[in-house]
Fold each of these.
Amino acid sequence: MIGFSLSDEQKQLQADAHAFAVEVMRPVSRHYDLTGEWAVPVYQKAWEAGYLQSLVPKAYGGPGKSQLDEAIVCEELAWGCAGLYTSIMANGLAITPILIAGSDQQKKTWLSKLVEAPLFAAFSLSEPNAGSDAGGMTCRAEKKGDVYVINGTKCYCTNGGYADFYTLFCSTDPSRGARGSSALIVPRSTPGLTVGKALDKMGQRASNQIELHFENAEVPVANLLGKEGMGFIIAMKTLDQTRAAVAAGGVGVARAAYEIALDYAKTRIQFGSPIIMNQGVSFMLADMAVKIEASRLLTYQAAWMTDHQIKNSKQSAISKTFATDTAMEVATDAVQILGGNGYSREFLVEKFMRDAKLLQIYEGTNQIQRLVIAKEIQQGN
Ligand SMILES: Cc1cc2nc3c(=O)[nH]c(=O)nc-3n(C[C@H](O)[C@H](O)[C@H](O)COP(=O)(O)OP(=O)(O)OC[C@H]3O[C@@H](n4cnc5c(N)ncnc54)[C@H](O)[C@@H]3O)c2cc1C
């Protein structure tokens, strides 16, 4: 059966997340955009609301939210501020490798930390010379007795400057390429690990990305997730599951831009009438509405498939591509509808345009999503 209504619990979750976005995020979003400061008071409240740890299963003391729940919340949080949303959402990304491949003991040790305090975790796959081609990673972990010795550099690690631990992907057997990669949990306090300076960005400036440098950093072999050689598979499974939350971010940014553009078009008078009376403007708004609705349906579908353990590589890539391309298009058109005001910092649409761009890049660029979709359809999926 197909159903298009949310449960009462999901409606409440949505209403609460929207109230959080209105009361806690929007009032400070410009401040954090301008300063790039780490928004401690927002994250404290996000943790109290259960958003920082939403994917931690009930068995480990967390709220045990589904990916569909996560998508519902993420749309609202990104509506509030995409930069703050990214910091919150990236905790879910970071812990998903543990949810997928962690042992019961690893889950108890690492997931329960996020329940006990407003802590951050970070997902570390990208390297300076291995971005889209993540399988070409060279960060090396060599097993020596009961430790892995890690050497190399990672980059663009979201939340990395403030994380308590990292889910790190590195090569344990360079001769096997991507099949020789493994996933390790690395505590921030590991000797030999240094955190670089924060990336200065165009948008989503409230979020934090850093480089990680490993020089003979040792972690216990007990921190290996799954088996050696499974790292790339764990990373790809993680991204299949979490892309719906990025797509939901796209829906949130697009909706935020659309709402401002719609209000403006109804009230801005030129040539004696509201500008919405011009078909050139109203059709832009109609196209926005079409794509936002379609994006949300694709997002819910991809999340629902994860929740029902249905392979969704194609659908999650489609939802991420469509929703984040939509966010970029809608934010750009919203700037156009507001004319000179759209370009001014007095209105938020210029921020949404800068914020939307990142959604098309991280968790795999939209070109890479199209590669995934193309491969899936070539295989008849
Ligand atoms: C703010 C921010 C946050 C991030 N957060 C994280 C994080 O938390 N953890 C993490 O591991 N990574 C993170 N990333 C990294 C992000 O996932 C990569 O930037 C992204 O995957 C692209 O890699 P790249 O930047 O090296 O670009 P490249 O791989 O060098 O690509 C450059 C361009 O070439 C295109 N391209 C490359 N190969 C192909 C191809 N085969 N076909 C068509 N086009 C292609 C790309 O689409 C892109 O347009 C983040 C990045 C940013 C900017």
Amino acid sequence: MDESRDGMAPGARVSRRGVLQGGAATAIAAGLASTSADAGTAVEAPALPQGAAPGLAPVVMERVQVTVNGQQRVLTLDARTTLLDMLREHLHLTGSKKGCDHGQCGACTVLADGQRINACLSLAVMHDGREVTTIEGLAQGDALHPMQQAFLTHDGYQCGYCTPGQICSAIGMLQEHKDGWPSWVTADLTASPPPLTDGELRERMSGNICRCSAYPNIVAAIREVEGGSGQDADHPGVGRKVPA
Ligand code: FES
Ligand code: FES
């Protein structure tokens, strides 16, 4: 008897390659059949706008006028351009960093009309007529912004990648606190502003991730600007001023 070890006659054995080839052929045949079956009732595809590539949505360009670091900028951008890409790719302000591009790390934090936002989650067109401040716009000439100086003084960074976002976020955060905004950990919602405990401070800065874990020194830097001791109470001895 002419049977192989698997007990099947050679003609009846199905190889993996055969299954794949057969499947592909069936799919193609089904596609052709459905094309020819639909031919009588075919609906014409809508005409593409001039210049649009088939299969791609047409690009919509928008004029955007934004004041960036005190300077008025007028750009014509693809309407899908994020604020972060506008700053980095079009205005070459590369201080704001792209960490995740998904709103998860805070490296792209800038101030829009004084409020901290993730520039990667915001479209540039949404800021038409608004004021945006990046890390490049904080210093006055050679005089650093107090928050920049405090980060230097307390060694609030290591690689520095998160630092522009941390500094912009800290400035926005202190203003939010001053304006009486509560946080998730605010115990007394009637206190305005609530006491800025280290727990409050850490929660309010939790959207800014530091892969180097410079957190105690970051807290100390923010504390100094806020008017506190410049010490991180949760980590005594850490966040001391760095000798000049
Ligand atoms: S790059 Fe915007 S939050 Fe990470
Ligand atoms: S200093 Fe390196 S990520 Fe924060």
